[in-house]
TrEMBL record:
Gene3D superfamilies: Glutaredoxin
Assigned keywords, A-Z: Cytoplasm, Disulfide bond, Redox-active center
Protein name: Thioredoxin domain-containing protein 17
Record keyword Phosphoprotein present: no
Listed CDD domains: TRP14_like (cd02952)
Location of this chain's protein in the cell: Cytoplasm
Lineage: Eukaryota, Metazoa, Ecdysozoa, Arthropoda, Hexapoda
Family: Belongs to the thioredoxin family.
Naturally occurring in which organism (per UniProt): Hermetia illucens (Black soldier fly)
Annotated InterPro entries: Thioredoxin-like_sf (IPR036249), TXNDC17-like (IPR045108), TXNDC17_dom (IPR010357)
Length: 126
């Protein structure tokens, strides 16, 4: 991802990070499946979306907003209906990849993360 991207792996690290978010901060979060030793995610939708999201982050992300890449875990962890990323009241993820603005209605899910026009709107509109 872009320079300055924060990488987080797993739910515990995610929770520790969000505890430190200030009320006035803009934080964009990209949730994706974990990657193997070659750097490829087990999630085919994530593999397709990542280069498009990377390009949008490089082109549109503002300096005053944080961009956080969150690894939700392996396939078994994600597919568990009790996966905490699925049940957390602030994320309620149903698919990956998901791009969301923390504590905001702005959210792109699944194939929407592959759409350059939607990504532009996500990053440029309040």
């Amino acid at each position: 991802m872009a320079p300055g991207t924060i990488y987080i792996a797993g739910y515990d690290a995610f929770m520790k990070f969000v505890e430190g978010i200030k009320d006035n901060e803009t934080v964009n979060m990209y949730f994706s499946g974990s990657k193997d030793e070659r750097g490829s995610s087990w999630c085919p939708d994530c593999v397709r979306a990542e280069p498009v999201v990377k390009e949008a982050v490089a082109k549109y992300a503002s300096d005053d907003a944080k961009f956080v890449y969150i690894d939700v875990g392996d396939r078994a962890t994600w597919k568990d209906p009790k996966c905490p990323f699925r049940t957390n009241k602030n994320t309620y993820l149903s698919v990956i990849p998901t791009l969301l603005r923390w504590k905001s209605p702005q959210k792109l899910e699944g194939p929407q993360c592959e759409n350059p026009d939607l990504l532009e709107m996500f990053f440029t509109e309040d």
